[in-house]
Amino acid sequence: DLGKKANDVFSKGYHFGVFKLDLKTKSESGVEFSSGITSNQESGKVFGSLSSKYAVKDYGLTFTEKWNTDNTLATDITIQDKIAAGLKVTLQGTFAPQTGSKSGKLKTQFANETIAVNSNLDLDLAGPIVDVAAVLKYQGWLAGAHTQFDTQKAKFSKNNFAFGYQTNDFALHTNVDNGKDFGGSIYQKVSDKLDCGVNMKWTSGSSDTLFGVGAKFALDQDASLHAKINNKSLIGLGYPQ
User: Fold this and answer.
1) Do 188 and 147 fall into the same domain?
2) Is residue 62 part of a domain?
3) CB neighbour list of residue 136: distance below 8 Å, 6 or more residues apart
4) Is residue 60 situated within a structural domain?
5) Could you tell me the residue range of the domain that residue 210 belongs to?
């Protein structure tokens, strides 16, 4: 993902007003189980989820079943590197028994050393939404495009472009979304323990510019300190472990 390293500095490790607990385990037969609970202290809403995942490695297949406290059931079937090297195809389906609501998606991902392409097809008979993104890489330089087309309305709902440069310890990223939202970020891995980032956002026709700096310091393999501040004097602190 273009700009992911800088975005992680600003987004990961912060859970304002939220209590979150995740548990994972794996059975002897290879089935992975995970559960999670999230409590919003402001609204009082509690959300829980339970999922299981089983992989058939000989055929490149993965089956995932999910359930959450909104009483929504979901099933994912994924096949990877069997149709073609670097190609991953996922069929997703969701069902809400209380309302009878159903949805489905077909996702494809292809990646090698020079190109990555993702596509999502919303399986809606009334008119699917087609979402396609691609990134090209050449000697550290990156160029990407993302578009979304609503077949029911016969129009493009997203047209985004991004450019960047990335090495193992440095990343520069700029983007233009729908011709009016502009953004940029810089990421620098100062040391094995310290990551720093700078980001900026601006919307055409508005004088309001958002600028921020952030840092992450690893205390050990599990614990880290996170801090960020922006030009509106909003400060964020985090201590995940």
Assistant:
1) no
2) no
3) 114, 115, 142, 143, 144
4) no
5) 1-46+180-240
pTM above 0.90, yes or no: no
- Cα separations in angstroms, 125 against 110, 129, 155: 26, 10, 17
Q: What are the angstrom distances between the C-alpha of 216 and each of 172, 191, 239?
A: 18, 11, 10
Instruction: Tell me the per-residue pLDDT of 3-28, one tens digit each, with 9 for 90 and over.
Output: 888 999 998 888 777 888 889 999 98
Radius of gyration of the chain (CA): 21
Q: Is residue 61 part of a domain?
A: no
53 part of a folded domain: no
**How many other C-beta atoms are found inside a 10 Å radius of the C-beta of residue 40?**
13
- For the chain, where are the alpha helices, taking DSSP H only? 4-11
DSSP 30: S
- Residue 125 pLDDT > 80: no
